[in-house]
Amino acid sequence: MDVIVIGGGIVGVATAYQLRAAGHRVCVVERHATVAQGATYGHGGIVLPTPLDAWFGPTFMDARRGARSGVVYRPGLNSSARRFARQLSRLQAPEAFREQWLRLRPLVELSREVIASIAGGFHLDFEQRAGLLHVVRDPREWEQAQSAFDLLREFEMHHHVLSAAECAELEHSVPAEPSFAGGALFEHEYTANCPLFTKLVKQVLDEQGDVQFLFGRAVDAIRLEGHRAAVELAPAEGQRESKREVDVMSCDAIVVAAGAGSIALLERFGLSLPLHAVRMLALTAPIAYEECAPHLTVVDSARRVSMTRMNQRIRVAGAAVLQSERELAKPLAEPLAEAGSALLAQATHDWIPGAAKISAAHAWEGVRLLSPDGLPCVGGTAHPRLFANFGHGPAGWGLACGSAKVVADLISGAAPLVPPETLAALRVERFAN
Ligand SMILES: Cc1cc2nc3c(=O)[nH]c(=O)nc-3n(C[C@H](O)[C@H](O)[C@H](O)COP(=O)(O)OP(=O)(O)OC[C@H]3O[C@@H](n4cnc5c(N)ncnc54)[C@H](O)[C@@H]3O)c2cc1C
């Protein structure tokens, strides 16, 4: 089949990879000049989520905890942003959290296998670094996180629960004072460089053939008429609006993998979804003192700030800024950017003091798309030629590889390697009820 994939982030490139592997001809349409320029560019490095850093659950989106929740919470009077936060916060209840994690888990495990097979199969080096140390400051937050620890035990996910003293002994950059509640070590989980991985997979595709990349072109609209599928392209830069005919590309199937841009595309097509884009910040700072730099990736679990060493830099990512759609379309206001950067700088100061030269940090912000039930939108839609692969939230890096396999299997008429309950929970149509 001829398949058009809209979006050249990790999700679009991983989808193109799986489609080609299944024997399809693929065209990836990306509005930027190359791949990995959207949310994929500034990721925090954590490859796969555990119950402790899933983007829903016991400690996430707790507005009552203010900046301690890691969210710069400014929905203003916008009702959709408020409704969205309220829906996500329902998943703080242990039973609701457990149910949703049960649905997501098979996708996490499939993703683990797929990344390992791509990385191993092509001997890719994308700055993989083993070992994550989650730390929790406050005894109340530790208490709240117990339902996540219960899931780790229930599914026998390899980890060690540690006291504060054990954390400090294990990771020399984490100070034992002031005291904190404790932590968890995931020695087999790892961080890596997501944009580098995306570019390496693109290189593999370039060498293999059958995947075309159309850069610098945005998809304006999706057309689905009976047995036909097509995309309308916006004019390329320099192309005069008045003289042009609409560029239309036909295909057998379309995969929407346009990250935060997916919602607008589907809305124009008449499909309105309750997903919400959330801005997130990242600081990339040079190492200040090598002797203070962490060996492990340190994650402030309750604030969801990750501090990842990437060669001679530390990437500090987190600080979700919750705003209305209208505010999201504008550049981030200075006070909010400052509040977000201060939150990241404070986490660095608290957990890995002296490791990163924050005053010389490069600040970056990206937008990621979250669904109100925490799960991505992956799979078929009401139209047999339209497929979804977006809304992976803060965990799109690794999940992209598994969800790409699911979509490619569905397009090929093969049985996806996740259970039917997971498949049903990921479908876009779940929001129709
Ligand atoms: C600061 C930050 C830290 C993060 N940390 C982590 C982490 O540690 N671990 C993790 O797993 N995830 C993390 N994430 C989330 C992860 O980066 C995203 O989930 C993932 O990159 C999403 O990939 P994507 O391909 O869907 O989106 P994107 O990378 O945004 O790609 C979508 C692409 O579609 C293109 N596009 C959009 N509309 C159109 C159109 N109409 N026509 C053509 N092209 C279009 C865009 O230009 C873009 O390139 C983080 C995100 C941020 C912002």
UniProtKB/TrEMBL annotation:
PANTHER family: D-AMINO ACID DEHYDROGENASE, SARCOSINE DEHYDROGENASE-RELATED. One of its GO terms (cellular component) is plasma membrane. The keyword Hydrolase does not apply. One of its GO terms (molecular function) is D-amino-acid dehydrogenase activity. It comes from Trinickia soli. This is Amino acid dehydrogenase. It comes from the Bacteria. Keywords: Oxidoreductase. The keyword Ion transport does not apply. GO terms for biological process: D-alanine catabolic process. InterPro entries: FAD-dep_OxRdtase (IPR006076), FAD/NAD-bd_sf (IPR036188). Residues 2-410 form the FAD dependent oxidoreductase domain. Belongs to the DadA oxidoreductase family.
